[in-house]
Design goal:
Layout: E1 10-13, E2 21-26, E3 29-35, H1 41-46, E4 53-58, E5 64-69, E6 73-75, H2 84-94, H3 97-105, H4 113-123, H5 126-129, H6 132-143, E7 154-156, E8 165-168, E9 173-175, E10 182-184, H7 186-197, H8 203-211, H9 217-240, H10 244-264
Antiparallel strand pairs: 1-2, 2-3, 3-5, 4-5, 6-8, 7-10, 8-9
Pfam families: APH
Domain Aminoglycoside phosphotransferase: 50-214
Organism: Ligilactobacillus acidipiscis
């Protein structure tokens, strides 16, 4: 792989959805290389949300290549995703003035509830759109859009899966893979993580740990709305990749979530 590095570097691809991540090795030096990362990466490094940014360079192809400190560690296990350490990191991201300023500076986009419905309708196959349960849920969401002032939108990671949480050998937790970053209702991130990793019976306690207070009815509504929206998007994602077992598991969750949300209304 030619990444315009001087002689002596060994570059090894690292698995991932984008195919743009590599390990760079030169003698005793090891770095994490990323081709065309989000320009937001510098702010994330300053806030110690991601490993330290070492350098950034423009390649002859016009692409951008960054190098970050290599951190020995591991991804979180499913059972660790409801931990206080995860809550603390997400809260820090959502409430960072620096991240908010920098994302605004690099042209971060605001996503409203209707924008996520548009993504679902445009990206989903006709077969899925015609599925009775999925069709009913999408129409229900369309008829009950939540309200959240744009001033309350926060920096949203957009893909809170356990593989994006890196726990270093020294115990520091990082959140990586920021290609989906946006401004959005924080309920978008929170409900995504809970749908995937937090038992439904523990949602109230988990959210109260995040907010530090009892959940308002308005926020509870937004959480329920985005929970259903995220599950619809997960179904579409897994369908496109042929992950039909995961897709069917999400459809079961959709049925359960819809029944709860429908009673909430």
């Amino acid at each position: 792989m030619n990444l315009d590095l001087e002689n002596g570097w060994q570059v090894l691809p690292i698995g991932g959805d984008t195919g743009t991540a590599y390990m760079g090795i030169k003698q005793k030096e090891k770095v994490f290389l990323k081709r065309n990362p989000s320009p937001f990466i510098a702010a994330l490094s300053l806030e110690e949300v991601t490993p330290k940014l070492i350098w950034s360079k423009r390649m002859h192809t016009g692409d951008t290549l960054t190098a970050q400190q290599w951190m020995n560690g591991r991804c979180l296990e499913r059972s660790e995703m409801s931990s206080d350490q995860v809550i603390s990191l997400i809260r820090r991201v959502h409430h960072s003035d620096l991240l908010k300023r920098m994302l605004q500076k690099v042209g971060g986009i605001h996503y409203e509830p209707s924008d996520f419905l548009t993504l679902y309708y445009r990206g989903t196959s006709a077969d899925l759109l015609a599925h009775p349960l999925l069709h009913k849920c999408a129409k229900f969401l369309e008829a009950h859009l939540p309200e959240c002032p744009k001033d309350d939108y926060e920096v949203s990671h957009g893909n809170l899966k356990r593989e994006n949480f890196l726990l270093s050998d020294s115990g520091q937790l990082f959140l990586v893979d920021w290609e989906s970053v946006m401004f959005a209702d924080p309920a978008k991130d929170l409900s995504m993580l809970m749908c995937r990793y937090v038992p439904r019976a523990d949602w109230k306690q988990w959210l109260e740990s995040y907010f530090g207070k009892q959940l308002s009815k308005a926020m509870e509504f937004r959480i329920q709305w985005y929970a259903l929206m995220n599950l619809l998007l997960d179904v579409e994602f897994n369908y496109r990749r042929g992950r039909f077992h995961e897709m069917n598991q999400d459809i079961i969750k959709i049925q359960q979530t819809f029944e709860i949300f429908e009673k909430f209304i």
